[in-house]
Structures are given as C-alpha cells and as structure tokens.
Automatic annotation (TrEMBL):
Species this protein is from: Bacillus taeanensis
Entry GO MF terms: RNA binding
Pfam families: Hfq
Taxonomy, superkingdom: Bacteria
Protein name in the entry: RNA chaperone Hfq
Length: 86
C-alpha cells in the first residue's frame, strides 16, 4: 500500500514540473538565493536549468518554491523600487 502512495505522489510532482518544462522559471532556494533560467529537464530528485548559457543541476530538497519568470516584469519592478528610493 505504501508503494502505491509514493507512486501517486511522484506522478503529481511530474505533472507540476511538466507545466514549467522548456519555460523560463525562477527557483527560490532554502538558502534565500534564487536562480532564474530555463527548465530543461527534471527527474525525481533534481532539476536541470539553463542559466546564461550554462547548465545547472539543482537538487529538489534545496528548493523552496518555483514560479514562472518574465524578465521584463522583474526589471520594471526594480526600476519602480529605485525611483521610490530617490
């Protein structure tokens, strides 16, 4: 019975990451850092991302959350914050 539960949990996880496959994402890590790039591949334990032409392997146990990433939106947010600081 426990193996069936594990398979179902893994299947749910596959569907979640499949939604982000070959798209720009921002991965927030437990350390407080974030990585923005394109999600190339994933398996049960890792994500493979392309960031500035280099491939990065990220272990899932270090991930806090993942969200879609649009660079234009982030840069507009930074400009607005800089203008408020002036």
């Amino acid at each position: 019975m426990t193996t069936q539960v594990k398979k179902e949990a893994h299947a749910t996880q596959k569907r979640l990451y499949a939604k982000f496959l070959n798209q720009s994402v921002k991965v927030y890590l437990n350390s407080g850092r974030s990585i923005a790039g394109k999600l190339i591949e994933y398996d049960q334990f890792t994500l493979c991302m392309k960031v500035k032409g280099y491939e990065h392997l990220v272990y899932k146990h270090h991930i806090e959350f993942v969200r879609p990433y649009i660079e234009e939106v982030d840069s507009k947010k930074k400009k607005t914050e800089e203008e408020k600081g002036k």
